[in-house]
Write a structure and sequence with these properties.
The chain is an all-alpha fold. It has helices at 3-6, 19-49, 56-73, 76-83, 92-125, 130-133, 136-162, 178-183, 190-221, 225-258, 265-277, 279-290, 292-315, and strands at residues 9-12, 89-91, 170-171.
Length: 316
C-alpha cells in the first residue's frame, strides 16, 4: 500500500524540552501572543476609527498589521497546545493548512512592504502627481494584489505537494513547512521544484523593487533639508520594518540550509520562528511611535479614556 494512503498525521520533533520548561515557555508565549494581538489591534482600530488616517500609507500599514495577526494565528495556537502536550502531532490536512497560512503571510508581508515602498516613492519623488496616481481605485487594486498574489503562490505550491506521495512523517521543526514536507516525498517532483523557483524569483523581484525605490528615495531626499525630514518621519519606519523582515527571512533560510544536529535545539527553534516573533511586535511599535498622526491619535484615545474613568469615579 502506498504511504500516502495511510499517512494521516505528521510528528513535529522540534520541541524537545522538559515538562517544567514547557510550562514556563507556555506562560511566556501566551503573554507574548497577547502582546502581538494588543499592539496590532490598537493600530488597526486607530486607523479604522480616525477618518484623518484614511490615507494610502496608513491603509497599507493597517493591512500589514492584519497580515501579522493572520500569520501568527497559523503558529501560536498550535504551538501553545503542543507546549501542554506530551506528544506533538498534527493532522495531515492541518499541517498543510498551517504551512499555507504561515508562508502566505510571509509573502504578504513582502508584498505589502513593496506597495508601501511604491507609495513613498510617489509621495516624495513625485509629490505633485501623488493624488492623481494614488487614487482610491489604485489603492484598492494594490491592497487586493498584495493579498491575492501571496495566497495564490502558496496555494499552488501547497496543492502540488499535497498531491505527492510521502514516505515519512517526521518534521524536524516547531511547525509545518512545505519545504520540509516536500523532502518526505517518495520521489522528486519537477513541477513542484519549478513552482518553488518561480516563487523565489517572484519575491526576489519584490525585493529588488523595494531596494531600487529606496536608493532613489535616499538620493532624492538628501538634496534638501525638508526632504531629509520627510524621509526620517515616513520612510525610516518602513526601512526598519524591511530590514527587520529581511533578517527574519534570512534566519528561516539559514535554518532550512544549516539547521542540523550541529546546532543546539534552542538556536534552531529561534532561527525557525524569528519572523513570527520579532516583526509582528516591532512593526506596529515602530510605526506607532514614529508616525506623528498615529502617535497623537493613540495618546488622544488614552487621555479620553482616562477622563472618562475620572468622571465615573467622581460620580460614585
Amino acid at each position: 500500500m502506498d504511504n500516502v494512503s495511510v499517512l494521516t498525521f505528521f510528528i513535529l520533533s522540534g520541541l524537545n524540552y522538559t515538562a517544567q520548561h514547557r510550562t514556563i515557555l507556555f506562560v511566556l508565549t501566551l503573554l507574548y501572543y497577547s502582546l502581538i494581538w494588543i499592539v496590532n489591534a490598537v493600530l488597526i482600530v486607530t486607523i479604522i476609527v480616525d477618518r484623518k488616517l484614511h490615507e494610502p500609507m496608513y491603509i497599507f500599514l493597517c493591512n500589514l498589521c492584519v497580515n501579522a495577526l493572520y500569520g501568527t494565528t497559523g503558529f501560536y495556537p498550535k504551538f501553545l497546545m503542543d507546549l501542554l502536550s506530551a506528544t506533538h502531532v498534527i493532522s495531515y490536512t492541518e499541517c498543510f493548512l498551517q504551512s499555507f497560512v504561515i508562508y502566505s503571510s510571509a509573502g504578504g508581508d513582502l508584498s505589502i512592504l513593496a506597495v508601501m515602498a511604491y507609495d513613498r516613492y510617489v509621495a516624495l519623488c513625485k509629490p505633485l502627481m501623488y493624488h492623481s496616481v494614488m487614487t482610491r481605485q489604485r489603492i484598492l487594486m494594490l491592497v487586493a494584489l498584495s493579498w491575492l498574489l501571496p495566497l495564490n503562490c502558496m496555494f499552488i505550491n501547497t496543492i502540488t505537494i499535497f498531491q505527492s506521495k510521502l514516505c515519512g512523517s517526521n518534521i524536524p521543526k516547531l511547525y509545518c513547512a512545505n519545504s520540509l514536507i516536500s523532502r518526505l516525498a517518495c520521489s522528486t517532483s519537477i513541477v513542484n521544484n519549478s513552482i518553488v523557483y518561480f516563487n523565489i524569483a517572484f519575491y526576489c523581484g519584490h525585493f529588488i523593487l523595494i531596494i531600487w525605490s529606496y536608493m532613489y528615495l535616499i538620493r532624492t531626499c538628501l538634496k534638501s533639508k525638508e526632504g531629509r525630514s520627510k524621509f526620517m518621519q515616513t520612510c525610516l519606519p518602513h526601512l526598519i520594518s524591511l530590514l527587520n523582515f529581511g533578517f527574519a527571512v534570512l534566519f528561516d533560510l539559514m535554518y532550512s540550509r544549516f539547521g542540523s544536529s550541529t546546532l543546539s535545539q534552542s538556536l534552531q527553534n529561534f532561527m525557525a520562528i524569528e519572523f513570527l516573533l520579532i516583526p509582528p511586535v516591532m512593526n506596529p511599535l515602530i510605526y506607532g511611535l514614529n508616525l506623528t498622526k498615529i502617535r497623537k491619535r493613540i495618546l488622544g484615545f488614552s487621555r479620553a479614556k482616562r477622563k472618562l474613568l475620572d468622571k465615573v469615579d467622581r460620580s460614585r
